[in-house]
Amino acid sequence: METIKLKAEIDATDQLETGDGTAVELGLHPQLARLELLVYPTSRQLQSNNSMARSGQLEILPMEAPLTLFVWSKQRTTPVRITELSITEDAFDTSLNPIRAKISLGLRVLSVDDLGFSHKGGTAFMSYLQNKEQLAGRIAGGNPDTIGFSGV
């Protein structure tokens, strides 16, 4: 299982300086909410499933989270599940809207074992894996000494 961990800082200073209406009114709330919603099914899905369960139309229905792609570069685009999300709000405007925040993310790479070959996320994983194989193949000779493992 492949995992990715990263930390990021976001800041609304530039948007506030230029008078961006959303930043002035809400600070970073929209950006933080967008990240947080990647972890949950929608309220509509939850309410619909609750109604169906109460009327006996539904016993068990796993809700599929939205497909999340981690795009770090052309060489690193892969489907992931967010396993950890931590937000620390560091600075606020006078209405207590966050204007600076630190974000810590833990991601688990989803493979064809998780998604299947026909799922669009499975296709994205296969492209990711093939690209990784091509990159690894660019090491001359392919022996352990060329990648820093001597004496193996």
**What order do the helices and strands follow?**
EHHHHEEEHH
Mean pLDDT: 88
For the biggest sheet, the summary is: 4 strands, antiparallel
**Tally of discrete structural domains:** 1
Q: Roughly what fraction of the amino acids lie in strands?
A: 25-35%
Report how far apart the termini are: 24 Å
Strands of the largest sheet, in order across it?
Answer: 1-4-3-2
Low-confidence stretches: none
Counting DSSP E segments of at least 2 residues, the number of strands comes to: 4
- Compute the gyration radius: what is it? 21 Å
Helix content: 25-40%
Put simply, the count of helices is 6
Briefly note the structural class of the backbone: alpha+beta
Q: What form results from the Cα inertia axes?
A: flat
Please tag this protein with its features.
6 helices
Report on this structure.
The chain has helices spanning 13-17, 21-26, 29-37, 43-54, 112-115, 120-136, and strands spanning 3-11, 68-73, 76-92, 98-109. With 152 residues, the protein is of the alpha+beta class. It has one domain (3-138). Strands 1-4-3-2 form a four-stranded antiparallel β-sheet. The two termini are 24 Å apart. 11% of the residues are buried.
Task: Please give a quick description of this structure.
This protein is of the alpha+beta class and 152 residues long.
Topology:
Layout: E1 3-11, H1 13-17, H2 21-26, H3 29-37, H4 43-54, E2 68-73, E3 76-92, E4 98-109, H5 112-115, H6 120-136
Antiparallel strand pairs: 1-4, 2-3, 3-4
